[in-house]
Protein backbone atom coordinates (compact mmCIF):
# COMPACT_ATOMS: atom_id res chain seq x y z
CA UNK A 1 0.00 0.00 0.00
CA UNK A 2 1.37 3.42 -0.96
CA UNK A 3 2.42 5.60 1.94
CA UNK A 4 1.47 9.23 1.27
CA UNK A 5 3.73 12.15 2.06
CA UNK A 6 2.70 14.64 4.70
CA UNK A 7 -0.36 16.81 4.12
CA UNK A 8 0.24 19.19 1.18
CA UNK A 9 2.27 22.17 2.33
CA UNK A 10 5.86 22.88 3.43
CA UNK A 11 6.29 19.42 4.98
CA UNK A 12 5.15 17.67 1.81
CA UNK A 13 7.50 19.79 -0.31
CA UNK A 14 10.38 19.00 2.07
CA UNK A 15 9.54 15.28 1.93
CA UNK A 16 9.53 15.29 -1.87
CA UNK A 17 12.64 17.44 -2.07
CA UNK A 18 14.54 15.09 0.23
CA UNK A 19 13.72 12.10 -1.97
CA UNK A 20 14.69 13.86 -5.18
CA UNK A 21 17.98 15.08 -3.68
CA UNK A 22 18.86 11.55 -2.56
CA UNK A 23 18.07 10.09 -5.96
CA UNK A 24 19.88 12.87 -7.81
CA UNK A 25 23.03 12.67 -5.71
CA UNK A 26 23.18 8.89 -6.00
CA UNK A 27 22.56 8.56 -9.75
CA UNK A 28 23.42 11.76 -11.61
CA UNK A 29 27.14 12.23 -10.79
CA UNK A 30 27.91 8.63 -11.75
CA UNK A 31 25.85 8.76 -14.94
CA UNK A 32 27.42 12.10 -15.92
CA UNK A 33 30.87 10.58 -15.46
CA UNK A 34 29.88 7.59 -17.60
CA UNK A 35 28.52 9.79 -20.38
CA UNK A 36 31.56 12.05 -20.13
CA UNK A 37 33.82 9.09 -20.87
CA UNK A 38 31.47 7.82 -23.58
CA UNK A 39 31.57 11.13 -25.38
CA UNK A 40 35.32 11.51 -24.94
CA UNK A 41 35.73 8.08 -26.56
CA UNK A 42 33.39 9.08 -29.38
CA UNK A 43 35.00 12.39 -30.31
CA UNK A 44 38.64 12.09 -29.20
CA UNK A 45 39.41 10.96 -32.73
CA UNK A 46 38.92 14.63 -33.66
CA UNK A 47 42.09 15.48 -31.74
CA UNK A 48 43.82 12.26 -32.75
CA UNK A 49 43.26 13.35 -36.36
CA UNK A 50 45.71 16.25 -35.89
CA UNK A 51 48.54 13.69 -36.24
CA UNK A 52 46.77 10.37 -36.98
CA UNK A 53 45.50 11.39 -40.41
CA UNK A 54 49.06 11.99 -41.57
CA UNK A 55 50.38 8.74 -40.05
CA UNK A 56 47.59 6.63 -41.56
CA UNK A 57 47.29 8.48 -44.87
CA UNK A 58 43.69 9.53 -44.19
CA UNK A 59 42.23 12.19 -46.46
CA UNK A 60 39.61 14.62 -45.14
CA UNK A 61 36.93 12.65 -46.99
CA UNK A 62 38.16 9.30 -45.61
CA UNK A 63 38.14 10.73 -42.08
CA UNK A 64 34.60 12.03 -42.61
CA UNK A 65 33.50 8.63 -43.95
CA UNK A 66 34.87 6.87 -40.88
CA UNK A 67 33.08 9.39 -38.67
CA UNK A 68 29.85 8.70 -40.54
CA UNK A 69 30.16 4.92 -40.21
CA UNK A 70 30.14 5.30 -36.44
CA UNK A 71 26.57 6.56 -36.74
CA UNK A 72 25.54 3.89 -39.24
CA UNK A 73 26.30 1.22 -36.63
CA UNK A 74 24.82 3.39 -33.88
CA UNK A 75 21.57 3.59 -35.82
CA UNK A 76 21.41 -0.14 -36.61
CA UNK A 77 21.82 -1.27 -33.02
CA UNK A 78 20.19 1.50 -30.98
CA UNK A 79 16.52 0.46 -30.84
CA UNK A 80 17.31 -3.24 -30.21
CA UNK A 81 19.65 -2.16 -27.42
CA UNK A 82 16.98 -0.05 -25.69
CA UNK A 83 14.43 -2.86 -25.90
CA UNK A 84 17.02 -5.28 -24.49
CA UNK A 85 17.58 -2.95 -21.54
CA UNK A 86 13.89 -3.13 -20.65
CA UNK A 87 14.17 -6.93 -20.60
CA UNK A 88 17.44 -7.48 -18.72
CA UNK A 89 17.47 -4.36 -16.52
CA UNK A 90 19.27 -1.05 -16.67
CA UNK A 91 22.14 -1.95 -14.34
CA UNK A 92 23.35 -4.97 -16.31
CA UNK A 93 22.75 -3.48 -19.76
CA UNK A 94 24.43 -0.12 -19.10
CA UNK A 95 27.43 -1.98 -17.66
CA UNK A 96 27.57 -4.22 -20.75
CA UNK A 97 27.54 -1.25 -23.09
CA UNK A 98 30.34 0.56 -21.25
CA UNK A 99 32.66 -2.42 -21.00
CA UNK A 100 32.17 -3.22 -24.69
CA UNK A 101 32.82 0.29 -25.95
CA UNK A 102 35.91 0.59 -23.71
CA UNK A 103 37.43 -2.56 -25.19
CA UNK A 104 36.64 -1.45 -28.75
CA UNK A 105 38.10 1.99 -28.01
CA UNK A 106 41.37 0.43 -26.88
CA UNK A 107 41.45 -1.69 -30.02
CA UNK A 108 40.93 1.44 -32.17
CA UNK A 109 44.43 2.58 -31.24
CA UNK A 110 45.89 -0.11 -33.49
CA UNK A 111 44.26 0.76 -36.81
CA UNK A 112 46.69 0.88 -39.73
CA UNK A 113 44.91 2.72 -42.56
CA UNK A 114 41.62 4.00 -44.00
CA UNK A 115 39.92 0.58 -44.08
CA UNK A 116 40.76 -0.47 -40.52
CA UNK A 117 39.92 3.05 -39.30
CA UNK A 118 36.47 2.80 -40.90
CA UNK A 119 35.92 -0.69 -39.43
CA UNK A 120 36.99 0.48 -35.95
CA UNK A 121 34.60 3.43 -36.05
CA UNK A 122 31.75 1.16 -37.12
CA UNK A 123 32.35 -1.24 -34.22
CA UNK A 124 32.66 1.63 -31.75
CA UNK A 125 29.26 2.89 -32.88
CA UNK A 126 27.79 -0.60 -32.46
CA UNK A 127 29.29 -0.90 -28.97
CA UNK A 128 28.01 2.48 -27.75
CA UNK A 129 24.55 2.15 -29.33
CA UNK A 130 21.81 2.33 -26.75
CA UNK A 131 23.73 4.03 -23.95
CA UNK A 132 22.29 7.52 -24.32
CA UNK A 133 18.63 6.59 -24.98
CA UNK A 134 18.98 3.87 -22.37
CA UNK A 135 19.96 6.40 -19.72
CA UNK A 136 17.20 8.82 -20.80
CA UNK A 137 14.73 5.94 -20.36
CA UNK A 138 16.37 4.99 -17.05
CA UNK A 139 15.88 8.53 -15.74
CA UNK A 140 12.13 8.27 -16.41
CA UNK A 141 12.12 5.32 -13.96
CA UNK A 142 13.36 7.64 -11.20
CA UNK A 143 12.26 11.23 -11.82
CA UNK A 144 8.69 12.57 -12.15
CA UNK A 145 8.15 14.62 -15.29
CA UNK A 146 8.30 17.96 -13.47
CA UNK A 147 12.02 17.33 -12.87
CA UNK A 148 13.08 15.92 -16.21
CA UNK A 149 14.30 18.97 -18.15
CA UNK A 150 16.77 19.92 -15.41
CA UNK A 151 17.82 16.30 -14.82
CA UNK A 152 18.39 15.62 -18.52
CA UNK A 153 20.36 18.88 -18.76
CA UNK A 154 22.50 17.85 -15.79
CA UNK A 155 23.15 14.47 -17.39
CA UNK A 156 23.84 15.88 -20.85
CA UNK A 157 26.24 18.52 -19.54
CA UNK A 158 28.73 15.67 -19.89
CA UNK A 159 28.79 16.37 -23.65
CA UNK A 160 30.28 19.87 -23.55
CA UNK A 161 32.33 18.96 -20.47
CA UNK A 162 33.90 16.11 -22.44
CA UNK A 163 35.34 18.65 -24.86
CA UNK A 164 36.07 21.24 -22.16
CA UNK A 165 38.24 18.87 -20.13
CA UNK A 166 39.07 16.44 -22.90
CA UNK A 167 40.57 19.05 -25.26
CA UNK A 168 43.66 19.98 -23.19
CA UNK A 169 44.03 16.37 -22.00
CA UNK A 170 43.97 15.09 -25.58
CA UNK A 171 46.49 17.74 -26.63
CA UNK A 172 48.82 16.67 -23.82
CA UNK A 173 48.49 12.97 -24.67
CA UNK A 174 49.56 13.76 -28.24
CA UNK A 175 52.91 14.87 -26.81
CA UNK A 176 53.63 11.24 -25.78
CA UNK A 177 54.51 10.51 -29.40
CA UNK A 178 57.19 7.81 -29.49
CA UNK A 179 56.81 6.68 -25.87
CA UNK A 180 56.68 2.89 -25.68
CA UNK A 181 56.97 2.75 -29.50
CA UNK A 182 53.44 4.17 -29.82
CA UNK A 183 52.26 7.32 -31.54
CA UNK A 184 50.76 10.09 -29.41
CA UNK A 185 47.32 9.50 -30.94
CA UNK A 186 47.54 5.83 -29.91
CA UNK A 187 48.22 6.81 -26.30
CA UNK A 188 45.28 9.22 -26.53
CA UNK A 189 42.82 6.54 -27.68
CA UNK A 190 44.01 3.94 -25.16
CA UNK A 191 44.18 6.22 -22.11
CA UNK A 192 40.71 7.65 -22.71
CA UNK A 193 39.07 4.23 -23.29
CA UNK A 194 40.29 2.37 -20.19
CA UNK A 195 37.99 4.33 -17.79
CA UNK A 196 34.92 3.05 -19.69
CA UNK A 197 35.75 -0.54 -18.73
CA UNK A 198 36.28 0.42 -15.08
CA UNK A 199 33.06 2.43 -14.92
CA UNK A 200 31.17 -0.44 -16.54
CA UNK A 201 32.25 -2.69 -13.71
CA UNK A 202 31.29 0.03 -11.24
CA UNK A 203 27.79 0.27 -12.74
CA UNK A 204 27.10 -3.31 -11.69
CA UNK A 205 27.56 -2.28 -8.06
CA UNK A 206 26.18 1.27 -8.06
CA UNK A 207 23.08 1.39 -10.28
CA UNK A 208 19.80 -0.07 -8.98
CA UNK A 209 17.42 -0.76 -11.86
CA UNK A 210 14.24 0.67 -10.26
CA UNK A 211 13.24 2.69 -7.15
CA UNK A 212 11.97 -0.49 -5.50
CA UNK A 213 15.61 -1.69 -5.36
CA UNK A 214 16.99 1.58 -3.95
CA UNK A 215 18.54 0.71 -0.60
CA UNK A 216 19.67 4.34 -0.22
CA UNK A 217 15.99 5.32 0.23
CA UNK A 218 13.86 4.43 3.24
CA UNK A 219 10.88 2.12 2.72
CA UNK A 220 8.46 5.07 2.94
CA UNK A 221 10.50 6.99 0.37
CA UNK A 222 10.70 4.04 -2.04
CA UNK A 223 6.95 3.45 -1.85
CA UNK A 224 6.09 7.12 -2.28
CA UNK A 225 8.38 7.55 -5.31
CA UNK A 226 7.09 4.36 -6.94
CA UNK A 227 3.50 5.47 -6.37
CA UNK A 228 4.17 8.97 -7.77
CA UNK A 229 5.73 7.55 -10.94
CA UNK A 230 2.99 4.93 -11.35
CA UNK A 231 0.32 7.62 -10.99
CA UNK A 232 1.92 9.69 -13.75
CA UNK A 233 2.28 6.64 -15.96
CA UNK A 234 -1.39 5.66 -15.52
CA UNK A 235 -2.50 9.24 -16.24
CA UNK A 236 -0.45 9.29 -19.45
CA UNK A 237 -1.78 5.87 -20.48
CA UNK A 238 -5.34 7.08 -19.92
CA UNK A 239 -4.62 10.03 -22.21
CA UNK A 240 -3.35 7.72 -24.96
CA UNK A 241 -5.22 4.73 -26.43
CA UNK A 242 -1.99 3.08 -27.62
CA UNK A 243 -0.73 0.39 -25.23
CA UNK A 244 1.56 -1.53 -27.59
CA UNK A 245 4.75 -3.06 -26.24
CA UNK A 246 7.97 -4.49 -27.69
CA UNK A 247 8.04 -4.78 -31.48
CA UNK A 248 4.44 -3.60 -31.64
CA UNK A 249 5.54 -0.40 -29.88
CA UNK A 250 8.33 0.03 -32.44
CA UNK A 251 5.84 -0.26 -35.30
CA UNK A 252 3.48 2.11 -33.54
CA UNK A 253 6.05 4.86 -32.91
CA UNK A 254 7.40 4.63 -36.47
CA UNK A 255 3.94 5.43 -37.80
CA UNK A 256 3.60 8.43 -35.47
CA UNK A 257 3.93 11.76 -37.25
CA UNK A 258 4.84 13.46 -33.99
CA UNK A 259 7.79 11.10 -33.51
CA UNK A 260 9.18 11.89 -36.98
CA UNK A 261 8.89 15.60 -36.27
CA UNK A 262 10.76 15.14 -32.98
CA UNK A 263 13.45 13.15 -34.82
CA UNK A 264 13.98 15.92 -37.40
CA UNK A 265 14.14 18.54 -34.64
CA UNK A 266 16.75 16.57 -32.72
CA UNK A 267 18.72 15.72 -35.86
CA UNK A 268 20.01 19.31 -36.06
CA UNK A 269 21.12 19.32 -32.44
CA UNK A 270 22.65 15.85 -32.60
CA UNK A 271 24.51 16.61 -35.82
CA UNK A 272 25.84 19.88 -34.41
CA UNK A 273 27.05 18.26 -31.17
CA UNK A 274 28.82 15.40 -32.88
CA UNK A 275 30.13 17.30 -35.90
CA UNK A 276 31.70 20.16 -33.97
CA UNK A 277 33.17 17.79 -31.38
CA UNK A 278 34.74 15.87 -34.26
CA UNK A 279 35.77 18.73 -36.56
CA UNK A 280 36.30 21.78 -34.34
CA UNK A 281 39.93 20.95 -33.46
CA UNK A 282 40.70 20.94 -37.18
CA UNK A 283 38.71 24.17 -37.72
CA UNK A 284 40.78 25.95 -35.05
CA UNK A 285 44.03 24.32 -36.16
CA UNK A 286 43.39 25.86 -39.59
CA UNK A 287 44.13 29.29 -38.10
CA UNK A 288 47.78 28.24 -37.63
CA UNK A 289 47.58 27.23 -33.96
CA UNK A 290 49.75 24.63 -32.26
CA UNK A 291 48.15 21.43 -30.93
CA UNK A 292 48.24 22.78 -27.35
CA UNK A 293 46.81 26.17 -28.37
CA UNK A 294 44.08 24.34 -30.27
CA UNK A 295 43.25 22.29 -27.17
CA UNK A 296 43.08 25.34 -24.91
CA UNK A 297 40.92 27.43 -27.25
CA UNK A 298 38.64 24.47 -27.96
CA UNK A 299 37.73 24.48 -24.25
CA UNK A 300 36.13 27.93 -24.33
CA UNK A 301 32.89 27.33 -26.30
CA UNK A 302 32.22 24.05 -24.52
CA UNK A 303 32.82 25.58 -21.08
CA UNK A 304 30.31 28.36 -21.76
CA UNK A 305 27.78 25.85 -23.10
CA UNK A 306 28.18 23.60 -20.02
CA UNK A 307 27.04 26.35 -17.67
CA UNK A 308 24.23 27.71 -19.81
CA UNK A 309 22.56 24.35 -20.51
CA UNK A 310 22.00 23.83 -16.76
CA UNK A 311 20.59 27.36 -16.38
CA UNK A 312 18.28 26.85 -19.37
CA UNK A 313 17.12 23.43 -18.15
CA UNK A 314 16.20 24.88 -14.73
CA UNK A 315 14.35 27.73 -16.43
CA UNK A 316 12.40 25.28 -18.59
CA UNK A 317 11.26 23.27 -15.56
CA UNK A 318 10.30 26.32 -13.54
CA UNK A 319 8.17 27.67 -16.38
CA UNK A 320 6.80 24.25 -17.38
CA UNK A 321 7.12 25.45 -20.98
CA UNK A 322 8.77 23.29 -23.65
CA UNK A 323 8.16 24.79 -27.12
CA UNK A 324 9.92 28.17 -26.84
CA UNK A 325 12.57 26.60 -24.59
CA UNK A 326 13.48 24.26 -27.44
CA UNK A 327 12.93 26.55 -30.44
CA UNK A 328 14.88 29.64 -29.35
CA UNK A 329 18.23 27.86 -28.82
CA UNK A 330 17.84 26.11 -32.20
CA UNK A 331 17.29 29.48 -33.87
CA UNK A 332 20.41 30.91 -32.20
CA UNK A 333 22.43 27.92 -33.41
CA UNK A 334 21.25 28.30 -37.00
CA UNK A 335 21.87 32.07 -37.20
CA UNK A 336 25.34 31.76 -35.64
CA UNK A 337 26.32 29.09 -38.16
CA UNK A 338 25.27 31.39 -41.00
CA UNK A 339 27.33 34.29 -39.65
CA UNK A 340 30.57 32.26 -39.76
CA UNK A 341 30.47 32.79 -43.54
CA UNK A 342 31.07 36.52 -43.00
CA UNK A 343 34.36 36.37 -41.09
CA UNK A 344 37.90 35.07 -41.43
CA UNK A 345 38.91 36.14 -37.92
CA UNK A 346 39.88 33.50 -35.37
CA UNK A 347 38.32 35.42 -32.47
CA UNK A 348 35.06 36.25 -34.22
CA UNK A 349 34.81 32.63 -35.35
CA UNK A 350 35.39 31.50 -31.76
CA UNK A 351 32.61 33.81 -30.50
CA UNK A 352 30.19 32.53 -33.15
CA UNK A 353 31.03 28.89 -32.45
CA UNK A 354 30.49 29.60 -28.75
CA UNK A 355 27.00 30.91 -29.58
CA UNK A 356 26.38 27.85 -31.78
CA UNK A 357 27.22 25.51 -28.92
CA UNK A 358 25.45 27.62 -26.29
CA UNK A 359 22.21 27.30 -28.25
CA UNK A 360 22.80 23.71 -29.24
CA UNK A 361 23.35 22.34 -25.75
CA UNK A 362 20.65 24.51 -24.18
CA UNK A 363 17.93 22.62 -26.04
CA UNK A 364 18.91 19.18 -24.74
CA UNK A 365 17.00 19.23 -21.45
CA UNK A 366 13.79 20.88 -22.71
CA UNK A 367 13.73 18.75 -25.85
CA UNK A 368 13.95 15.38 -24.11
CA UNK A 369 11.47 16.52 -21.47
CA UNK A 370 9.14 17.39 -24.36
CA UNK A 371 9.79 14.03 -26.02
CA UNK A 372 9.19 11.89 -22.92
CA UNK A 373 6.02 13.85 -22.13
CA UNK A 374 4.80 13.45 -25.71
CA UNK A 375 5.25 9.69 -26.10
CA UNK A 376 2.70 7.28 -24.58
CA UNK A 377 4.30 5.33 -21.69
CA UNK A 378 4.20 2.00 -23.54
CA UNK A 379 6.16 3.58 -26.38
CA UNK A 380 8.75 5.48 -24.33
CA UNK A 381 11.61 2.97 -24.61
CA UNK A 382 11.16 2.42 -28.34
CA UNK A 383 10.27 6.07 -28.94
CA UNK A 384 13.33 7.61 -27.28
CA UNK A 385 15.59 5.17 -29.08
CA UNK A 386 13.79 5.79 -32.39
CA UNK A 387 14.15 9.58 -32.06
CA UNK A 388 17.85 9.25 -31.29
CA UNK A 389 18.30 6.66 -34.04
CA UNK A 390 16.51 8.63 -36.75
CA UNK A 391 18.33 11.81 -35.71
CA UNK A 392 21.66 10.02 -36.00
CA UNK A 393 20.88 9.05 -39.58
CA UNK A 394 21.18 12.75 -40.31
CA UNK A 395 24.25 13.03 -38.10
CA UNK A 396 26.09 10.28 -39.96
CA UNK A 397 25.21 11.72 -43.37
CA UNK A 398 26.23 15.26 -42.42
CA UNK A 399 29.50 14.12 -40.82
CA UNK A 400 30.50 12.50 -44.11
CA UNK A 401 29.14 15.42 -46.17
CA UNK A 402 31.18 17.97 -44.21
CA UNK A 403 34.36 16.04 -45.01
CA UNK A 404 33.52 16.06 -48.72
CA UNK A 405 32.50 19.75 -48.78
CA UNK A 406 35.64 20.77 -46.88
CA UNK A 407 37.80 18.83 -49.32
CA UNK A 408 36.01 20.27 -52.39
CA UNK A 409 35.70 23.91 -51.27
CA UNK A 410 38.57 24.32 -48.82
CA UNK A 411 36.16 26.20 -46.52
CA UNK A 412 34.83 25.01 -43.18
CA UNK A 413 32.09 27.72 -43.01
CA UNK A 414 30.72 26.49 -46.34
CA UNK A 415 31.02 22.87 -45.17
CA UNK A 416 28.95 23.75 -42.08
CA UNK A 417 26.00 25.16 -44.07
CA UNK A 418 24.04 21.85 -43.91
CA UNK A 419 24.02 22.24 -40.11
CA UNK A 420 22.74 25.81 -40.47
CA UNK A 421 19.85 24.57 -42.63
CA UNK A 422 18.98 21.57 -40.44
CA UNK A 423 18.90 23.52 -37.16
CA UNK A 424 16.85 26.27 -38.84
CA UNK A 425 14.35 23.66 -40.06
CA UNK A 426 14.22 22.18 -36.56
CA UNK A 427 13.38 25.59 -35.07
CA UNK A 428 10.43 25.99 -37.45
CA UNK A 429 9.19 22.45 -36.74
CA UNK A 430 9.21 23.00 -32.97
CA UNK A 431 6.73 25.85 -33.43
CA UNK A 432 4.67 23.72 -35.80
CA UNK A 433 4.60 20.95 -33.18
CA UNK A 434 3.40 23.48 -30.62
CA UNK A 435 0.48 24.41 -32.87
CA UNK A 436 -0.62 20.75 -32.92
CA UNK A 437 -1.54 20.94 -29.25
CA UNK A 438 0.05 19.95 -25.90
CA UNK A 439 1.90 16.66 -25.55
CA UNK A 440 0.45 13.66 -23.73
CA UNK A 441 2.08 14.55 -20.43
CA UNK A 442 2.22 18.36 -20.53
CA UNK A 443 3.36 19.23 -17.03
CA UNK A 444 1.49 22.54 -17.01
CA UNK A 445 -1.80 20.62 -16.92
CA UNK A 446 -0.56 17.96 -14.51
CA UNK A 447 -1.78 18.12 -10.92
CA UNK A 448 1.42 16.42 -9.76
CA UNK A 449 3.75 19.03 -11.27
CA UNK A 450 6.10 20.50 -8.73
TrEMBL record:
User: Which keywords appear in this protein's UniProt record, sorted alphabetically?
Assistant: Membrane, Transmembrane, Transmembrane helix, Transport
Q: Does the keyword Transmembrane apply?
A: yes
Membrane topology, as annotated? Multi-pass membrane protein
Q: What is this protein called?
A: MFS family permease
Q: Where is the Major facilitator superfamily (MFS) profile domain?
A: 27-438
Superkingdom is: Bacteria
- What InterPro entries is this protein classified in? MFS, MFS_dom, MFS_trans_sf
Supply the source organism for this entry. Methylobacterium persicinum
Where are the membrane-spanning stretches?
23-40, 60-80, 92-112, 118-139, 151-173, 185-207, 259-280, 295-314, 335-363, 383-405, 412-434
